[in-house]
Write a structure and sequence with these properties.
single chain; mainly alpha; Cytochrome Bc1 Complex, Chain D, domain 2
Length: 83
Amino acid sequence: MTTALKVFDRWKEFLGDRVEQAEKSGMSEETMSKLAFEIGEFLANKVDPKNNEERVLKDLWDAGDEQEKKVMARLMIKLAKNS
Protein backbone atom coordinates (compact mmCIF):
# COMPACT_ATOMS: atom_id res chain seq x y z
CA MET A 1 0.00 0.00 0.00
CA THR A 2 1.35 3.41 -0.89
CA THR A 3 2.13 5.96 1.79
CA ALA A 4 -0.72 8.23 0.63
CA LEU A 5 -3.25 5.43 1.02
CA LYS A 6 -1.89 4.59 4.48
CA VAL A 7 -2.27 8.24 5.49
CA PHE A 8 -5.81 8.32 4.09
CA ASP A 9 -6.65 5.10 5.95
CA ARG A 10 -5.31 6.62 9.17
CA TRP A 11 -7.41 9.73 8.53
CA LYS A 12 -10.55 7.61 8.06
CA GLU A 13 -9.73 5.71 11.25
CA PHE A 14 -9.25 8.99 13.14
CA LEU A 15 -12.55 10.32 11.78
CA GLY A 16 -14.28 7.06 12.70
CA ASP A 17 -13.00 7.34 16.27
CA ARG A 18 -14.32 10.91 16.53
CA VAL A 19 -17.73 9.89 15.18
CA GLU A 20 -17.87 7.02 17.67
CA GLN A 21 -17.02 9.41 20.53
CA ALA A 22 -19.70 11.84 19.37
CA GLU A 23 -22.29 9.05 19.29
CA LYS A 24 -21.30 7.85 22.75
CA SER A 25 -21.67 11.38 24.12
CA GLY A 26 -25.23 11.48 22.76
CA MET A 27 -24.68 13.74 19.76
CA SER A 28 -27.42 13.33 17.18
CA GLU A 29 -26.79 12.40 13.55
CA GLU A 30 -28.13 15.80 12.51
CA THR A 31 -25.69 17.64 14.80
CA MET A 32 -22.78 15.53 13.54
CA SER A 33 -23.79 16.31 9.96
CA LYS A 34 -23.91 20.05 10.69
CA LEU A 35 -20.47 19.91 12.29
CA ALA A 36 -19.08 17.87 9.40
CA PHE A 37 -20.42 20.50 6.99
CA GLU A 38 -18.82 23.33 8.98
CA ILE A 39 -15.51 21.46 9.15
CA GLY A 40 -15.69 20.79 5.41
CA GLU A 41 -16.22 24.49 4.75
CA PHE A 42 -13.29 25.40 6.96
CA LEU A 43 -10.95 22.86 5.38
CA ALA A 44 -11.94 23.83 1.84
CA ASN A 45 -11.32 27.50 2.55
CA LYS A 46 -8.29 27.40 4.85
CA VAL A 47 -6.26 24.20 4.31
CA ASP A 48 -4.22 23.24 1.28
CA PRO A 49 -4.64 19.58 0.30
CA LYS A 50 -1.54 17.55 1.21
CA ASN A 51 -2.15 14.54 -1.02
CA ASN A 52 -4.25 13.34 -3.95
CA GLU A 53 -7.07 12.08 -1.75
CA GLU A 54 -7.41 15.43 0.00
CA ARG A 55 -7.30 17.17 -3.40
CA VAL A 56 -10.15 15.00 -4.71
CA LEU A 57 -12.24 15.73 -1.62
CA LYS A 58 -11.59 19.47 -1.94
CA ASP A 59 -12.37 19.45 -5.66
CA LEU A 60 -15.64 17.58 -5.03
CA TRP A 61 -16.50 19.98 -2.20
CA ASP A 62 -15.76 23.01 -4.35
CA ALA A 63 -17.87 21.63 -7.23
CA GLY A 64 -20.94 21.10 -5.06
CA ASP A 65 -23.68 23.49 -4.09
CA GLU A 66 -24.72 23.79 -0.44
CA GLN A 67 -27.11 20.82 -0.57
CA GLU A 68 -24.51 18.60 -2.24
CA LYS A 69 -21.92 19.62 0.35
CA LYS A 70 -24.35 18.61 3.11
CA VAL A 71 -24.79 15.23 1.43
CA MET A 72 -21.02 14.86 1.18
CA ALA A 73 -20.66 15.69 4.89
CA ARG A 74 -23.20 12.97 5.75
CA LEU A 75 -21.38 10.53 3.46
CA MET A 76 -18.09 11.25 5.22
CA ILE A 77 -19.74 10.35 8.52
CA LYS A 78 -21.00 7.09 6.99
CA LEU A 79 -17.55 6.38 5.59
CA ALA A 80 -16.04 6.97 9.03
CA LYS A 81 -18.55 4.64 10.67
CA ASN A 82 -17.78 1.89 8.18
CA SER A 83 -14.00 2.18 8.58
